[in-house]
Amino acid sequence: MTQQKQMILSLAMFGAAGLNFKSWTDPEVKLSSYPDINIDIEAAKLAEKGKFHFMFFGDFPGNKASDTSDMQTMGLDPMMIASIISNHTERIGMGITRATSWSNPYDVARQFKTLDALSKGRMAWNAVTGANGVSANAYGVNLAPSFDRYGKAYEFTEAVQALWATWGEDALKLNHSTKEFADYDQVKAISLKGKYVQSSGTLPIPPSKQGQPLIFHSGGSENSIAFAGKYADVFVGEVWTIEQGQAIRQALRDAAVANGRQPDDIKFIAGVMPLLGDNKKEAIERHAQFIDDDTFLQRVAHIGYVLGIDFTPADLEKPIDPKLLDQVVVTPYSDPRLENVLKVAREGWSLRELVYHSVIDYHPAAVGTAQDIADYMTEWFEAGAADGFWVMPDVYKVDLTRFVDEVVPILQEEGSFHKDYEGETLRENLGVAYQYGTRERE
Amino acid sequence: MTQQKQMILSLAMFGAAGLNFKSWTDPEVKLSSYPDINIDIEAAKLAEKGKFHFMFFGDFPGNKASDTSDMQTMGLDPMMIASIISNHTERIGMGITRATSWSNPYDVARQFKTLDALSKGRMAWNAVTGANGVSANAYGVNLAPSFDRYGKAYEFTEAVQALWATWGEDALKLNHSTKEFADYDQVKAISLKGKYVQSSGTLPIPPSKQGQPLIFHSGGSENSIAFAGKYADVFVGEVWTIEQGQAIRQALRDAAVANGRQPDDIKFIAGVMPLLGDNKKEAIERHAQFIDDDTFLQRVAHIGYVLGIDFTPADLEKPIDPKLLDQVVVTPYSDPRLENVLKVAREGWSLRELVYHSVIDYHPAAVGTAQDIADYMTEWFEAGAADGFWVMPDVYKVDLTRFVDEVVPILQEEGSFHKDYEGETLRENLGVAYQYGTRERE
């Protein structure tokens, strides 16, 4: 009997109370101080109850918070949050973003390996380059057009992986009779001097239960696909349609092969915002309460822009005229969300309700009952548009709870999601091969 | 009734199982894997039970571990350990070392303020410059003689404190009726471009319960005293005699005044290794088991060197001839530990037992019963040689337990140590004034 291939689930950990700017206002959350680490701990435990493979932490240093970006651009360092969460969980992994453009490889190697060792092998480093000038300037780095982001990222990642292996795999002895702690002949310094990065010395930390952290990557450019082909075990993406997912997933599989790896060595993870209710209307009405007036008006305007229609306030409460929709031409240069705008608009929702469907947002929304959302994910998965999803519930305490209690069991019952963790480490749970040091070293 | 001035206690957190290279071999520890975060958590809880004011984390990145330096130079990042510990404790503070020579100010500002907010105001940054070339090279920094360590440290510390105040003290609103998260007009970017450090942007994290982390400093040079005079709330020192403690403590008090501050604004913390037993002989015999053969022979040789005596193996088991001791001349250039070597040798211990007293070590040892150790600390404290101590027990589980159960109650009974925490934050417990932003800003 062959094992059915199963999807990967990941929880996005960007906000204070959930993945919406206004999550904190939900009466179930009752946020009375910020930050509140207990909210993150509860979310992590919920995700672990739902057998999620990992939590995914973005990173937005230096950005000025604003009325429409509340939590997502708050400055908390995800390494601290992940450290605490790791101590309250036992199986779920953590993928944490740290950009190579403004970080130091020794620092990154050390903090990630420390946490990988303390968490007994559940860490991944999301090795993005970092293209945000505001973040770069906070770190005193000038991202001029000539700044070779990917050139630095390659050297940086090599250095980090080389540092991870400076402590020999079998160096730790803990021999109580001879009182030998370690065989220090197996601790070997590196000395790297590249064009962008240099580091010499050792990182004396024994291997974790999975050897060393996994490498994740995010992006979408040709450069990012090529980088992922060489280093990434997981690629966290941003796509709005099945076709886009299929294209980037195939590009990643080709890039893996081009680097002498197997196509399945890179897992492509697509984003999804589950809007869950007893029916679609209830689902979008729950979501609507987290859309503030400014955002609402911006999205109405953007829908008008992509459709080429000038809306007035009088248009809000009625469906868009199907004849106008039929005149819209989709081209390769259209907004990637246009097809979904058309599809949902043709279902007859009012313009207001169209906005509530989150057709214009950072990621596609799956709207409806638990079965609707499971069907959405299964369709993407079976079409080869994703190996899994990073899930963005509006409010952890409410919407993640419902997702875990209602959507996860359906996926498990249908055989497309695991019923329990395969092992103890993130590598075991994702089916990623053991690695210690750089790939060349293997 | 005036309140008697009381001493500060701090626990050194450098090792895996305690502050000795061989702590892990203690049968009570039974170390079977490394790292083991539970050992750190238990030590922190013990220290909190003993009402210690804070834990002190050193930092030794990049150094190659060796047979005689096992744990102390292991590469674990203290920020990760402190994050986890903070979540298992409620009152004890944490002072964590991060060197300005090889770190980035935005990174330091962000990680420390994140942890200060998550721990509800219990953090301090030990802002050392970092003079270790091996560590610097790991970070790709060349500490050439021309490297202006203190020049960078001043700019760095100003930048960190300025970043801490970019989120206005009253900006957080959490107004559930208006759904206003924050008044973003109170979030103000900085733009700093110095000779060594630059950073622009915001660090959008609300104040912790104590505003922002304290500043600690360590060292002993004139430069370090001057730096501490301007910035430090606590100075963690390395002195072997009361006279040395008095001298550096007075220098720090003078430096505070020179910067328009009060003499008591800088607390001087001296190191002490408590060797605790039912009597002195038992105390040194327990300590002896953690001294390996190489270290033992090195220390015999060093005692011979500072006394000007050539010892042979035949000398080990007998006291040093008092006539030889009388010929030793103490000069200002002598090893700072010489006076203590002479004092203990004159008590009639054998040369072997002299080594077991740890007369040659990184810090002075207090040897004997709980009352002996309390007396030692009280003598230093009353002589104005220290405002408190960083305590280095051989094994947390054994020797810290005894210290908390036996020494702490004596100090409390005698009125020289507090019976409970004064407040919730590290500032409240150390009596350090509230600060938000740079001092000039106040």
Automatic annotation (TrEMBL), chains A, B:
<keyword id="KW-0288">FMN</keyword>
<comment type="similarity">
    <text>Belongs to the NtaA/SnaA/DszA monooxygenase family.</text>
</comment>
<protein>
    <submittedName>
        <fullName>FMN-dependent oxidoreductase (Nitrilotriacetate monooxygenase family)</fullName>
    </submittedName>
</protein>
<dbReference type="InterPro" id="IPR051260">
    <property type="entry name" value="Diverse_substr_monoxygenases"/>
</dbReference>
<keyword id="KW-0503">Monooxygenase</keyword>
<keyword id="KW-0285">Flavoprotein</keyword>
<dbReference type="GO" id="GO:0004497">
    <property type="term" value="F:monooxygenase activity"/>
</dbReference>
<dbReference type="Pfam" id="PF00296">
    <property type="entry name" value="Bac_luciferase"/>
</dbReference>
<dbReference type="InterPro" id="IPR016215">
    <property type="entry name" value="NTA_MOA"/>
</dbReference>
<feature type="domain" description="Luciferase-like">
    <location>
        <begin position="36"/>
        <end position="385"/>
    </location>
</feature>
<dbReference type="InterPro" id="IPR011251">
    <property type="entry name" value="Luciferase-like_dom"/>
</dbReference>
<dbReference type="InterPro" id="IPR036661">
    <property type="entry name" value="Luciferase-like_sf"/>
</dbReference>
<keyword id="KW-0560">Oxidoreductase</keyword>
